[in-house]
Amino acid sequence: MRMTSCPRRPAAKRIRGAAPLLFLLLFSACDQKPPFRYDFEQASDLDNLEWKCGVLYERAEHPAMTGKSLKLTLYPPPEGENGYRGVVFGGFQPDWRRYESLHLEIHNPQPETLELTLRIDDREAPPYADRFNRVLAITPGGNRIVIPLAALATSGSGRMLDRKTIRQVRLFAVSPRKEYLLYLDNISLLAGRNTTARD
């Protein structure tokens, strides 16, 4: 019996023709970023948080929150020094144009109000005057905060942020004078009254 081997050259052509398409599909899949939505029910929610010195964070439960939340411990800087203590959100889908507002839930277990700064960048490392900055008064107990995206203007010129290129969101305390504990949950974009950011 005579066995005929498969021709190699056509097969090689098929592989060469498919390789660019396969690479493109793999590159596109890797390039996809998650929506800006953090409920901390999955450990993967921590993957896009940037760790900073003077802050301890972990997924934890709190009676005032639903399910898991992000437990943040903010430590004071050394005496005589300044420091920013908080969390940085990055690696999300940058196009926010189809959403209407940013929603945050923050529980403050301390008996006093804590001031946090919300910073939103639409450019790489912008100076203070060229980014959105807002001081939030986090009162004892639960705080539900809604920021209309139409109000995202820079602190200097009042330039409206480019909602197609949102790069980073930071929430931090400036030089806290003692150790503080906070719980964050349900941080997301709202497209309507009850519609959050989805894949």
Q: How would you summarize what this structure contains?
A:
The protein has 199 residues and is mostly beta strands. Helices cover 12% and strands 37% of the residues.
Specify the CATH homologous superfamily. Galactose-binding lectin
Query: What is the general shape?
Result: globular
Order of secondary-structure elements: HEEEEEEEEEEE
Share of helix, binned: 10-25%
Low-confidence stretches: 1-30
- The end-to-end distance, rounded to whole angstroms, is 57 Å
Oligomer: single chain
Beta strand %: 35-45%
* Overall tally of domains: 1
Average pLDDT number:
85
What is the CATH class?
A: Mainly Beta
Please tally the β strands and state the result. Answer: 11
Largest sheet: 6 strands, antiparallel
CATH architecture: Sandwich
CATH topology grouping: Jelly Rolls
Q: Which class best fits the helix and strand makeup?
A: mainly beta
The helix tally amounts to 1
Radius of gyration: 23 Å
